[in-house]
Design brief:
This protein has 230 residues and is mainly alpha-helical. The chain has 8 helices and no strands. The relative contact order is 0.19.
Length: 230
C-alpha cells in the first residue's frame, strides 16, 4: 500500500508543479522554465519516493516496466489507478488556486497546462505531427527511465538523468503538444478543464502508452542474455 500512496504523491507533485508552472507562470517562465519545473519535480520525487515505489509517476513508465518484465499485471493496474488519482487531485487543487485570482481565472478558457494540438493551441501543430512527437518523445523518456534504473547501473544519478530528459523534452515539444509523455499528467487537467482538452485526451492516453510498450520491448531486447557485448 505504501507504494501506491507514494505514486499518488509523486504524480500529484509532478502535475501540481509542472502544470502549475505552465498555467500560472508560463508567460514569465517560458518553455525552458516550464521544462525546468517538470524536470525538477521528477528529480525531487525520484529521491523522495524512488526507494519505495520506484517513482514511476507515469502510466507509460509502468507499462514499460511491465513489458520489460519488471512488474506484474496486478501491480501495473494499481500503479495506473494511483497515478491517475494523484494527477486528478493535483489538477483540482491547482484549479482552486488559479480561481483565487482577484481578476478572475476561467479554467475552461485559460486552462491548467493541459495537453492538446491544432488551431488555437500553442504552436498550432497538426495531429499527425503531434502523434509523432509524443511517440518518439515517450519512447526516449521511458527508455531512459528503464535503463537508468536497472540493477546493474548505479542509481545515485538516475533521478537526475530522468529529470533532465523530461526537462529537455518539455522545452523541445511544449509548442507542439504541451509535452505529455505521461497519460496521467494529461488526464488530470483534462478532466477539470473539459471541452477540447477532454476530447483530445485520447491521444495522450494511447500514444505515450504505446511509447512505453516500445521502450519496454527495446529494453528487454538489449538487456537479454542473448545480446552479446561488442
Amino acid at each position: 500500500m505504501k507504494k501506491y500512496v507514494c505514486e499518488i504523491l509523486g504524480t500529484f507533485t509532478l502535475v501540481f508543479i509542472g502544470c502549475g508552472a505552465a498555467a500560472l507562470g508560463g508567460d514569465i517562465l517560458g518553455q525552458l522554465g516550464i521544462g525546468f519545473a517538470f524536470g525538477s519535480a521528477i528529480v525531487a520525487m525520484a529521491y523522495a519516493i524512488g526507494p519505495i515505489s520506484g517513482c514511476h509517476v507515469n502510466p507509460a513508465a509502468s507499462i514499460g516496466m511491465f513489458v520489460a518484465g519488471r512488474m506484474n499485471f496486478r501491480e501495473l493496474i494499481a500503479y495506473i489507478i494511483s497515478q491517475s488519482l494523484g494527477a486528478f487531485i493535483a489538477a483540482a487543487i491547482l484549479a482552486m488556486i488559479a480561481q483565487g485570482r482577484i481578476v478572475g481565472y476561467d479554467v475552461t478558457v485559460i486552462g491548467l497546462g493541459q495537453n492538446g494540438w491544432g488551431a488555437g493551441y500553442l504552436g498550432g501543430y497538426k495531429v499527425i505531427a503531434s502523434i509523432l512527437f509524443e511517440l518518439v518523445a515517450s519512447f526516449i523518456f521511458i527508455t531512459v527511465i528503464l535503463q537508468s534504473t536497472r540493477d546493474e547501473v548505479p542509481k545515485q544519478f538516475a533521478g537526475l538523468a530522468i529529470g533532465i530528459t523530461l526537462a529537455a523534452l518539455v522545452a523541445f515539444g511544449f509548442q507542439i503538444t504541451g509535452t505529455s509523455v505521461n497519460p496521467a499528467r494529461s488526464l488530470g487537467p483534462a478532466l477539470i478543464v473539459g471541452g477540447k482538452a477532454l476530447s483530445q485526451v485520447w491521444m495522450f492516453l494511447i500514444v505515450p502508452s504505446l511509447g512505453g510498450v516500445l521502450a519496454g520491448m527495446f529494453s528487454r531486447y538489449i538487456n537479454s542474455a542473448e545480446s552479446g557485448a561488442i
